[in-house]
Amino acid sequence: MIEGATAKTYGSIEEVINELTTRFGERLSVAHSVCERFGKDESFHPSSPPDAVVTVLSTAEVQDVVSTCARYKVPVIPYGTGTALEGQVCALYGGICINLQEMNQVLEVHAEDLDVVVQPGVTRKQLNTHLRDSGLFFPIDPGANASIGGMAACRASGTNAVRYGTMRENVLALTVVLADGRMIKTSQRAKKSAAGYDLTRLFVGSEGTLGVITEITLRLYGIPEAITSAVCTFSDVESAVNTVIATIQYGIPIARMELLDESMIDGINRYSKTEFEVAPTLFLEFHGSEQSAAEQAQTMQGIAEEFGGGNFQWTGNTEERNRLWQARHDAAYAAKAMRPNGTIWSTDVCVPISRLADCITETPKGDIKANNLVAPSRVMSARENFHLAFVVDHEDREEEKRAEAVHERMVMRALAMGGTCTGEQVLAVARLISWWRNMVRRSALCGR
User: β-pairing, 76-79 with 96-99?
Assistant: First the structure.
């Protein structure tokens, strides 16, 4: 339970379980091991299990579960793949977990319209495997093989959001079961509409608080003819961020652009057996025709050199590209390996890009070292995110408090710069206090 949270009084969970068991049979489980598994994600939060787990197969069954729980005033917690980083699936007050993993069908592919309709349990890798022969793909890549329903509910972002946007830009329509069990469709497949409220955007990022997503219509893209990847090192983070700002201002349609500090690069080298130069490093990717991808890389190299960038290496070889980005995706595991007895606590402040260098440099490494913390950093540079990956022993309450204090300073600094406490990893359990401060600051500004 969140520290300081007040226990809630709900209806009879036993009556709910008995009623649902008559309709779902063996697809409802109250086994301790099952509930423990569905009450835990990949965050550092301990398992907070539901009272029961129900595996559903259709929108109608989701309506059945939700309406039953509504009658008894019992909480429901949707579950996708459990890859969340902020405790989203923790059943803080018990209740019924709705397991959506078996709702995993790609329902319709409209290749000419560049869209697809899927159930919430479809994962991003599953979807792209299904689409491969059509010449289309879905670009949002949060790193983990997350479910599409979870990605929509959490408004997921990813390494290539600079070109393709986030889930906010790529969800066209949703089917949602509301808190009382009613079902709504938020929109049609048309790419735009001026009719009425934008309900789709309301539910994208709502984290399950407004309803359970049971169908998603997504925007698709053609697989690029050519893909080129590159790395470039810098003497300091500020020079790298200035390169990013210039790249965006010049209008280069870069597909991916991420910055890792020297500590993270060193960790990746150790974990992934790579040989990157240990320095602040930009990871880059360009999509287009053979000629345009090469031209983008060459232009980017020139911009980087203006800001002191060196050792610019680029390749169109698929195996080399995959190895480069696999190393990037291993960043969290590399950070964890720096301290095997610790767990990852990833921070996620976001500021206007003109303040990104200030936000990073004003979070001094001396602050981290002075508090004896392990915290390599990663920057979603073109999307304005700044992540510190604290590797903390959560059994050591004093160390946890030191990490919280550093994080608190990061959040307040970001808010003062016109930013937010979270750019892509959502609120859930871990950021509720930071979110509250975010809201208080907004209210204060509105009252001026």
Answer: parallel
* CATH level 3 topology of 339-446: Alpha-Beta Plaits (3.30.70)
Query: Does 299 score more than 90 pLDDT?
Result: yes
Residues shown for the chain: 448
157's tokens = 């972002």
The Cα-based distances of 178 to 121, 298, 384, 407 in angstroms read 18, 51, 33, 35
Cβ of 448: how many Cβ atoms within 10 Å?
4
The Cα–Cα gap between 300 and 271 comes to 29
Contact 396, 414 (CB under 8 A): no
Alpha-carbon distance of 217 to 314, in angstroms, equals: 35
Residues 337, 263: contact at Cβ < 8 Å? no
**106-222 adopts what CATH topology?**
3.30.465
CA neighbor of 336 nearest in space, from 348, 325, 326, 345 = 345
- Domain limits, the chain: 13-99, 106-222, 226-332, 339-446
Q: What is the pTM of this model?
A: 0.86
Measured between alpha carbons, how far is residue 396 from residues 86, 138, 342, 403 in Å? 20, 42, 10, 11
| Domains 13-99 and 339-446 fall in the same CATH topology | no
Provide the residue type at 422 as one letter. T
Q: Is the confidence at residue 309, as pLDDT, over 90?
A: yes
Q: Reduced to 3 states, what is the DSSP secondary structure of residue 22?
A: helix
Alpha helices in 250-289 (DSSP H): 262-272
Average pLDDT estimate for 50-61: 98
How far apart are the C-alpha atoms of 89 and 375, rounded to whole Å? 25
Domain 226-332 architecture: 2-Layer Sandwich (3.30)
The tokens for 244 are 């990013």
Give the model's pLDDT for residue 347. 80
Residue 383 pLDDT: 63
pLDDT, position 444: 47
pLDDT band at 64 (very low <50, low <70, confident <90, very high): very high
pLDDT value of position 172 = 98
For 253-275, what is each residue's pLDDT tens digit? 999 998 998 989 999 999 999 99
pLDDT of residue 364: 59
Distance CA 224, CA 148 (A): 22
CATH topology of domain 13-99: 3.30.43
